[in-house]
Write a structure and sequence with these properties.
CATH class: Alpha Beta
CATH superfamily: Nitrile hydratase alpha /Thiocyanate hydrolase gamma
Bound molecules: fe (iii) ion
Shape: globular
CATH topology: Nitrile Hydratase, Chain A
Strand order of the largest sheet: 1-4
Length: about 200
């Protein structure tokens, strides 16, 4: 049967198409995984890292970014679908921000690329709200009790980007060198302390 009630979820449809392409020798799954990983870890998040580095070196840019993120991000040339209503939330010594999409997997594509698998997992989506401190500790990020954790639930309308704190001892670094320090996970908020 066909019709809207019988359409498989997007994951099933993609898996079916992938299986056919592999069977016909048109697609190499290892190559495909490599491409997805490249978008998840390299390409996309490097844009967000440039935004963060600019905010660290330019206080006026930081103000614009926190006040009207979409426009400030567009100044660096990034924007478009899945990123046209951006909000940037700033970590401070007293506040840690964590981004989740409890409903599905909304994510700021222009600044972070594709969401990692765990971001889409039901466990992350529910626990980020229910027990963020415990979840973060299990992911290797211990947030001490004196630091407030603010959880931001993304939606089709609003996408969030965390502005991590600039690491100590980086006063002499250029904007380009600073951008290299910024990780994808720090801009989602599952990492807090950047290493130099
Ligand atoms: Fe979503």
């Amino acid at each position: 049967m066909t019709g809207p009630d019988h359409v498989a979820p997007i994951e099933a449809r993609v898996a079916a198409i992938e299986a056919i392409l592999v069977e016909k020798g048109l697609l190499d799954t290892a190559k495909l995984d490599e491409i997805v990983q490249h978008f998840e870890e390299d390409l996309g998040p490097r844009n967000g890292a440039k935004v963060v580095a600019r905010a660290w070196v330019d206080p006026e840019y930081r103000q614009r970014l926190l006040a009207a993120a979409t426009a400030a991000i567009a100044e660096l040339g990034f924007g478009g679908p899945e990123g046209d209503h951006m909000v940037v939330v700033e970590n401070t010594p007293a506040v840690h921000n964590l981004v989740v999409c409890t409903l599905c997997s909304c994510y700021p594509w222009p600044t972070l690329g594709l969401p990692p698998k765990w971001y889409k997992a039901p466990a992350y989506r529910s626990r980020a709200v229910r027990e963020p401190r415990l979840l973060l500790a299990e992911m290797g990020t211990v947030i001490t009790d004196d630091v407030e954790i603010r959880v931001w639930d993304s939606s089709a309308e609003v996408r969030y980007l965390v502005l991590p704190q600039r690491p100590a001892g980086t006063e002499g670094l250029s904007e380009e060198a600073l951008a290299v320090l910024v990780t994808r996970d720090s801009m989602i908020g599952v990492e807090r302390q950047l290493t130099t």
